[in-house]
């Protein structure tokens, strides 16, 4: 892997200087729904128990939500528990599901099923933009004094002499193609914490580093993936809240 080879080359053969350090109680990698919900709930628990807890969330995107491209049919059951007054706080859940339909598609037409299995019904759910939800969650987290660092990409985990994870480092910037510092080089920051939470998705680079470092896949089946395709369709807007389940062509 070119990225890992370059990282190893820089660390092993070049003295890039000391990193500046920041320290928190908890650092969370990834400002998606999981990472932001974790940050919010930790701060809620700290407040309930009159404890001081510093929580930092790292987000590689320039702003929260910029890497969350998914439309979503959203079940609010977890949000009800996390932020019960989300309606009063203007959460971006504006389009309740009004109807579910199941279509069998041919090249030029459809057959609408008269029956819809119970597990495919979305009563009480909402059609949302997951990016907008993450932006809203970040605002709720910041109200609880969570530090959200957007535009900071975690590049590697940090370990102590006991082989324990003690934080993550953000990416060095301004490196040339051969891994040497350029004129605009800036050393990444070491963000240290008592607890590190990885919420960067199923193929996150830090997660993969941790899995390989501790041999966590030894004795287990390899992780498998499905291929998902997203398309943007322009459709008539006269039925807000309609969810169509498709099968066939």
Descriptive report:
- With 249 residues, this protein is an alpha/beta fold.
- The protein contains 5 helices and 14 strands.
- It has helices at 2-13, 33-48, 77-82, 130-143, 205-213; strands at residues 20-29, 55-59, 71-74, 95-96, 99-105, 110-112, 126-129, 147-150, 154-159, 165-170, 173-175, 181-186, 189-198, 242-248.
- The protein has a 6-stranded mixed beta sheet, sandwiched between helices.
- A hairpin with a 4-residue loop joins strand 5 (99-105) and strand 6 (110-112).
- The radius of gyration is 22 Å and the shape is globular.
Number of helices: 5
Beta-strand portion reads 25-35%
The dominant shape is globular
Summarize model confidence as the mean pLDDT: 89
Give the low-confidence spans: 1-13
Q: What's the helix-strand series?
A: HEHEEHEEEEHEEEEEEHE
Termini, distance in Å?
A: 38 Å
Trace the largest sheet across and list its strands. 8-2-1-13-10-9
- Calculate Rg over CA atoms: 22 Å
In total, the number of strands is: 14
Main pleated sheet: 6 strands, mixed
Structural class: alpha/beta
The portion of residues assigned to helices is 10-25%
């Amino acid at each position: 892997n070119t990225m890992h080879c370059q990282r190893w080359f820089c660390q092993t053969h070049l003295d890039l200087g000391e990193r500046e350090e920041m320290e928190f109680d908890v650092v969370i990698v990834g400002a998606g729904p999981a990472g932001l919900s974790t940050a919010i709930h930790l701060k809620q628990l700290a407040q309930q128990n009159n404890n001081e807890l510093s929580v930092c969330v790292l987000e590689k995107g320039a702003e929260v939500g910029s890497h969350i491209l998914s439309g979503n049919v959203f079940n609010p059951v977890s949000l009800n528990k996390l932020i019960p007054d989300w309606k009063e706080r203007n959460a971006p859940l504006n389009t309740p599901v009004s109807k579910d339909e199941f279509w069998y598609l041919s090249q030029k037409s459809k057959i609408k099923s008269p029956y819809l299995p119970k597990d495919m019904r979305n009563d009480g759910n909402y059609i949302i933009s997951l990016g907008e939800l993450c932006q809203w969650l970040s605002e709720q987290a910041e109200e609880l004094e969570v530090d959200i660092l957007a535009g900071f990409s975690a590049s590697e985990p940090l370990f102590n002499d006991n082989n324990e994870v003690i934080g993550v480092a953000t990416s060095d910037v301004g490196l040339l193609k051969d891994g040497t510092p350029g004129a605009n080089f800036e050393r990444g920051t070491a963000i240290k914490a008592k607890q590190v939470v990885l919420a960067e998705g199923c193929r996150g680079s830090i997660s993969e580093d941790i899995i390989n470092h501790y041999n966590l896949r030894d004795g287990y089946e390899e992780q498998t993936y499905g291929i998902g395709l997203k398309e943007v369709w322009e459709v008539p807007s006269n039925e807000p809240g309609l969810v169509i389940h498709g099968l066939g062509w």
